[in-house]
Amino acid sequence: MTEPIVQYRDVYKSFGDVKVLKGINLDIHAGEKVAVIGPSGSGKTTIIRMLMTLEEPTSGDIIVSGENLWKMEKNGKEVRANEKHLRKVRGDIGMVFQHFNLFPHMTILENCMTAPIHVKKEDKHEVRERAIQMLERVGLGDKIDNYPSQLSGGQKQRVAMARAVVMRPKIMLFDEVTSALDPELVGEVLEVIRDLAQHEDMAMVLVTHEMDFALDIADKVLFLDEGVIAEQGSARDVIEHSQNERLQSFLSRFRA
Amino acid sequence: MNTTYWSWERFFEALPIVLDGLWMTIFLTFASFAFALIVGFIWTLLRRIPIKPFNWIVTWSMEFIRSTPPLVQLFFIFFALPVIPVIGITLSPVQSAILGLGLHYSTYISEIYRSGIDSVGKGQWEAAKALNFSTMDKWKKIILPQAIPPTVPMLGNYLIILFKEVPLVSTITVSEILLLANTYGSRNFAYLEPLTIVGIIFLVLSYASAFLIKRLELRLNKRFDKNALAKSS
Known about the structure:
Chain B: This is Ectoine/hydroxyectoine ABC transporter permease subunit EhuD. Chain B: Belongs to the binding-protein-dependent transport system permease family. The structure holds 2 protein chains of 2 kinds. Chain A is built from 9 helices and 12 strands. Chain A is α/β, with parallel strands linked by helices. Chain A has a single domain (6-252), classed as Rossmann fold, CATH 3.40.50.300. In chain A, strand 6 and strand 7 (77-80) form a beta hairpin. In chain A, helix 3 (108-118) crosses helix 4, helix 4 (124-137) packs across helix 5 (153-166) and helix 5 (153-166) packs parallel to helix 6 (183-199). The radius of gyration of chain A is 19 Å and the shape is globular. Chain B starts with 7 loop residues before the first helix and ends with a helix. Helix content of chain B is 76%, strand content 0%. By secondary structure, chain B is mainly alpha-helical. Chain B has a single domain (8-232), classed as MetI-like fold. In chain B, helix 1 (8-19) packs across helix 10 (192-222), helix 5 (93-118) packs antiparallel against helix 8 and helix 8 (152-165) packs antiparallel against helix 10. Chain B is built from 11 helices and no strands. Chain A binds chain B through residues 52-54, 83, 87, 90-91, 93-95, 97, 99-105, 114-115, 118-119, 146-147, 149-150, 163-164, 167, and chain B through 121, 123-124, 126-127, 129-135, 137, 141-142, 145-146, 224-226, 228-229, 231-233.
């Protein structure tokens, strides 16, 4: 197997006195679809927020495409990464948030165009074309000139996904992207994720409570429990063959 | 009582004399306000520098400026500053007025900027980071376009308050409307008409500006968010 594009090496994270992650070791390979499941408060979201550089690990290393994300060399010594280093390394990573975080002062199309144009300095017309195509793909081709406030939650989340994909990340992070939605809107968002999982070759990490969906699309499932990866493997392995009692009791809560 | 206290003749005699100072009052209002907008922005930047002792000095300086009366500051800048060794500089009355009023109001303006920035949700900062914006672009494209519109009505209110404080500078010999009205009064032993004129000028202009700001506020609210929602769905 090739070198993984993301490696967590003994990563710890505490918020004050609360130890959220206690030694995470994890490889994510190019194109791999990873689902992170586990009870709330187990640190699922923190894992991907550290990769997006929204939280700094308390200790340990996260390696992205061979570069240490949170540390850099300076005069032969390893020091804390500065913003310049973080910017360089996180360029490969994209994220979709629970609460969408669309830019309210921009139209849907502008939301999808601003980063490729201003961050990646790509050609405006080319970006526009690509953004429109992407918005059509998520079923919002007729809304491109609307503002986010004019959309439903499900539509907003689809825009957020289009906005992230237009940046062409190598790794896409999904942070409980259906948790803030009304139940009847969850389906349309999952459909887009499924489409991305099947047709895009970027790696995807999904933190989710949509158990059946996660197990269905994921190459690898992580069960996170009390700050450690308690179980990992293919969906089939994890569900059918795991002897982990806490995992079994966690899964049984999702079986009616 | 055989004297008439009010004379229309004097009123119309004083009117052009007092109005002569109006341009100065308005000029000082906008010049001081522009100065306050810029210095307020610098305060806001300085306060974001995450070095504790430095932060403490900045906060304390602002508190000091805000807690001393603008009149004292004007007197200090105009009368006391020139006699201080080394840093002492002599400023013209108009320069002193702009510096004094501008500096005093910059501390309030900075507070408004901060409230505007704080009103931008955490999710917006995170989205800007996730899309890998540079620090400069993050402010220019994402944060400020959202932070500024809600502050416009507040800034407008401070503009009106500042406008009403401008007569303070008559004490440092700037020929604005109050000084001219006073001069007319002392020359003719008649203060009622010129000072009434000053009152009317302030009433008319403050009221008109407040009205304009209200309109502006409504229009800003109408832009993105709430009303857009009502329009489409």
